[in-house]
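forwarding from the other thread:

> can someone predict this with adenosine-5'-diphosphate?

sure thing
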Amino acid sequence: MDNKVLVFSAPSGSGKSTIVNHILSLYPDSMEFSISATSRAPRGEEQHGREYYFLSTEEFRQLIKEDKFVEFEEVYEGRFYGTLKSECERIWNAGHVIIFDVDVKGGVNLKKYFGDAALSVFIKAPSVEVLRERLINRGTDSPEAIEERVAKAEEEMEYAPQFDYVLVNDDLKTAFAESEKLVEDFLDDGRLNYSTFI
Ligand code: ADP
Ligand code: 5GP
């Protein structure tokens, strides 16, 4: 496992998915999103094998026992999320760079696992108030879930120093430009040329 990987983590609502999707759109032929396994139920239009591999808690626990995960976390009570070794292999076999969107503990663990082959970026909203506002405007979570996410964010902020970079997502255009630069520098002109990594 010596190919390059990009790891993005953030408290929920900071803009991680927005930034990850932006980066992915710049490297359509050479980068691929790591689809995690989760024991939570699909939301809205989510499909098995597209947003997540949706598993029962029993199936998830069985895969833990069989040592099938690079990392996993119980991100919310009773809801497991994890990166399958088979998913990394799938993406690398296609010759693509892997981009991860995981919680902050997962991000720290992936950086430890991949070492210098990983660029780890912690995305941060400018303040807790802005974070709450974004979650409300996103309209995907109940008021209780929003408060759960905001409470958790304060604890998650403590992991920021363990990342290679902390990116404050205030003005979106600026955050896009900063993340583009970080990725470009890390991949060292590897844009649209994945032969560099295999
Ligand atoms: P996360 O993946 O970290 O939970 P999202 O990418 O879903 O966060 O962003 C949360 C909400 O905030 C979304 O509705 C998104 O469109 C919005 N958003 C993201 N970045 C910004 C920004 N810089 N300014 C304003 N709104 C933003
Ligand atoms: P959601 O339920 O909103 O899709 O995701 C909740 C949280 O789980 C997000 O912070 C997301 O980044 C995180 N997550 C998704 N996949 C993984 C994974 O494979 N490992 C870890 N540790 N966290 C994950």
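Confidence is low (pLDDT under 50) at residues 190-198. thats all i got for now
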